[in-house]
Structure formats: C-alpha cells, structure tokens
Design a protein that fits this description.
four-stranded parallel sheet, Rossmann fold, 41% helix, alpha/beta, 464 residues, 16 helices
Length: 464
C-alpha cells in the first residue's frame, strides 16, 4: 500500500496523490459548516534525514524534504529531471524579477540588540526583504508551482492548466503573480479597495487578472477578498495561496525558511514571528520541528506569535485553549503571561493533544472572523482570521511561548529601530516580530534576554 503524503490535522483523513486525485491541496472530507479545522500536513516516515544539498537555491538544497520531490521519487521521476524542473522555473522567475531563489541572509544584529536590550540580548535577523518579490511569500507559492510542474511531468494533470486564484492585499499577490507568470499560468487576484496603487499596477503588468472586493454592510462576516477567492475555487480554479487549509502544499514550500534557520542559526532561546493568516509561523515551526526530529537542533525555541491591536484572532484563540488547559491542572496558574506559558508547558502537556483535538473539531469556539474592520500600519498581518492557527497555537504551548499583541506606537518604534540599526529597508509588517520583542521586554524583561531571532519578512515598497 502506498504511504500517504498528507494527513488532515482536523479529521485524520489520509491523502495519497493519484490520477483520480492528483492534487492534495484541501482535505477531501472538508465540508461547509462541519466546524472542523481541515488542514493537510505532510506525513514523513520515522527517521527523517536532514541532509541539505550544496545548492544556493533552497528548493534544490532541501528538495529531499519536499512533497513534490516525494511525489517525483514515488512515481519514477529521477533526481536530474526534478532538478531540471526547478531550475527551469527559477530561470523564468529571474527573467521576470531580476533574481531567482537563494538562501536568504541570517545576520547577527549587535547594534539592534544594543539599542533595545543591552549586553544580555543576542539578536539575529533573518532577512527576507531581498527574496523573490520582496518577501517570504514567494516561498509558499514556489512550493505549489513545483508540485504542479512535477504532477504535469508525471502525466497526473493532462489537458489545459486550470486558472489559479489568490486573495491578498499586497505581498502574497505580488509573489503569486511572479511565480504564476514564470509557470505561464493564468492568475486571478482578489484585493481590497485600499491595496497600494503600485502593487495593483505591478500585478497587471505581470499579467494577473485583478478583482477589487469591497466590504459592505450586507457582506458575510470575514474578508470579502477571501470569500471571492473561495468562490473562484468552487468554480474550478486552483488555490494558489498562503492558507494551509486551502492548500497544504503552501506550508511545504514555506518550510524552507525553517530549514535555513535550523541549518545556520546558533541555538536559539526564542523566535518572534508576526502572524496574520499564520502560514509564515506555521511553516517555520514545522520546518524547525523537522530539523529537531532529525537531530539538527536540540530543541525548538520559545515561539512568540505577534499580532496587532487592530486584529488578534490568534491571541484570542490561544487564550481560550489556555484557560481550558489551566482548568485541568490541580493548582493555580501564575498571573503573568510568560510565567503561565512555561507553567502550562511543564504541567499541562499531558492534556495538550486532547485539547488541540477538541479545538480542531470545534473550530468556531476558538477561531472566527474579527468583528471590526481591522486597521494597522502593519496592514499585511490584518487577516480577519488566522487560517493556520492550530499549528501555531500548538507550537506556542509546546515551547512555552505565548502571543504578543502590540500597539501602533510599538510597531512604528520597532520599524525605526530595525531600519536604523541594520540598514534593512523593512516595512512595518515585516518588522512586527521585532515589535513583539519590544513588547516582551516591557512586560517580562527576564524572558526578553537571551539569544533570539526575528524575521524581517517584507521590504518597504516605498523605498527604492
């Protein structure tokens, strides 16, 4: 019997790509209103080997860990043929974008650490601002396109390629347009009315079909762009997106960022990662977990998920699960968030699987659209829902981290400090993880000391 490539973290369904079902993007059991958080996650056999190649392109360097490579190997497509597919797509991206994929810089930011924390803080920055299309988002979409190209090479996708679809306000849409253009795929992009004019013009220049989706009093709860995206999927388009629930392969591509951190960073005490839809945090956590299971790193760092006061659905969901876990421990939980997080990790771990299963099968108790229209200078993390919330919440509980909700002043201060001390032209969304570190230093300075990593996830497009 062929081993499954994916398993749904919500219902347990196993998915094995075949000619009848070549694209394991969304759980086949997912049904509207079933209140189950269906997300397909990779199934890896025991004894996973983390053996990077020597290539600078992460999709070649870590190909043995990817879903597309597993499919290629299973169905007889050799390594040379797989490498040729990735190189062909990467060359096409470089033609459109001026550069292809390579491992992004990881730098020790001593000036930044001194500016915010003094000698007890060692700070590292993973710089994604120079990545394809200027953010980490292209990693997610490249993983999907490689999978599509492998499936086509194997004859699993005969006929005319279907349209692709994505909902986004900026970085994800640009990444999708570049990567889809390289694959000669037709892309529909659903954006809000306040999307940047420069972003919209670039999307059109790249050949994307743009549809503006406005909120109204009669609109259903949630992001109208996401609703339009789901309607396009129902009509037959493929989800070319950064939501794991709509396309599990998007997390697989994003895991390359976690692999790079695991391979290059020293042992970390904490990771601060900005969260909107959650794919970035989910991918990094799962990539680091693969590295830990393979013995590359000894343990996962404490994970702090950072959201804005404009919308923090992940923090709201975490708190509800935290209260359920704390109620099962026959002792009073500490009052501070940091102390309670460590207390839950050490004392409530025996019940974590059970509570996460409950959350996965009672989604509406924990995750629902933000009630107000969200606003923030960090507009790239203003998703009405955190679509990939479960894996991020689990990562925080397992490591003793917790959510950090930051205000606008802290977001702007973090951006100024980050740009001035590193010279990296990061935007306020991209530096929001650093804002989380500033918030932790304000509320629990003991935990804010140590060796920490932040991800500068996107460049400021108003800068040259």
């Amino acid at each position: 019997m062929t081993e499954p490539l994916f398993r749904c973290s919500g219902c347990g369904a196993e998915v094995t790509p075949s000619r009848a079902q070549p694209l394991p993007f969304r759980c086949p059991r997912a049904a509207r209103g079933d209140d189950v958080d269906h997300v397909l996650v990779r199934v890896r056999p025991p004894g996973v080997v983390f053996r990077p190649g020597h290539e600078d392109n992460p999709f070649l360097r870590y190909r043995a860990l990817s879903a597309a490579y597993a499919l290629a190997k299973r169905d007889g497509l050799g390594d040379d043929a797989y490498v040729a597919i990735v190189e062909r797509v990467d060359r096409a991206i470089a033609t459109l974008e001026g550069r292809g994929f390579w491992v992004t810089p990881l730098v020790r930011a001593d000036r930044l650490a001194e500016a915010i924390g003094g000698p007890a803080l060692e700070l590292w920055v993973k710089d994604e601002t120079g990545n394809v299309s200027g953010s980490h988002k292209a990693r997610h979409l490249m993983g999907i396109l490689i999978y599509l190209e492998v499936a086509r090479e194997l004859g699993l996708l005969p006929g005319e390629p279907p349209r692709l679809a994505i909902a986004s306000c900026g970085n994800a849409a640009l990444a999708a347009a570049v990567v889809a253009g390289a694959g000669k795929r037709t892309l529909d992009v659903f954006i809000p009315p306040d999307a940047s004019t420069s972003v919209t013009e670039r999307l059109v220049k790249l050949g994307a079909h743009v549809e503006v989706c406005a909120r109204s009093e009669t609109s259903p709860a949630g992001d109208p762009c996401y609703h339009a995206f789901r309607e396009a999927i129902a009509r037959g388009s493929l989800p070319f997106c950064c939501q794991g629930g709509d396309n599990g392969v998007t997390i697989d591509g994003g895991e390359t960022l976690g692999y790079e951190i695991a391979e290059a960073a020293p042992p970390l005490d904490a990771l601060f990662v900005q969260v909107g839809g959650g794919a970035l945090a989910s991918s990094v956590i799962q990539g680091l977990r693969v590295a830990r299971d393979a013995g590359v790193i000894a343990k996962l760092p404490r994970v702090y998920a950072v959201q804005t006061r404009g919308a923090f659905p992940l923090a709201r969901a975490y708190e509800r699960i935290a209260l359920r876990l704390a109620a099962r421990v026959p002792a009073a939980a500490p009052a501070s968030d940091g102390a309670r997080a460590g207390w839950l990790r050490d004392r409530a771990g025996a019940w974590l699987d059970e509570e996460m299963t409950h959350a996965a099968t009672h989604r509406s108790e924990f995750m629902w659209p933000w009630e107000q229209t969200p606003h923030s200078v960090a507009h790239g993390i203003l998703d009405d829902e955190t679509y990939d919330w479960l894996s991020v919440v689990r990562g925080m509980f397992e490591t003793g981290g917790h959510p950090l909700v930051v205000d606008e002043e802290t977001l702007l201060r973090a951006n100024r400090l980050g740009r001035d001390a590193t010279g990296i032209a990061v935007d306020p969304t991209g530096s929001a993880g650093l804002a989380g570190l500033l918030e932790l230093r304000r509320t629990d300075d003991r935990l804010a000391q140590g060796r920490h990593l932040v991800i500068f996830s996107g460049k400021d497009r108003d800068q040259p």
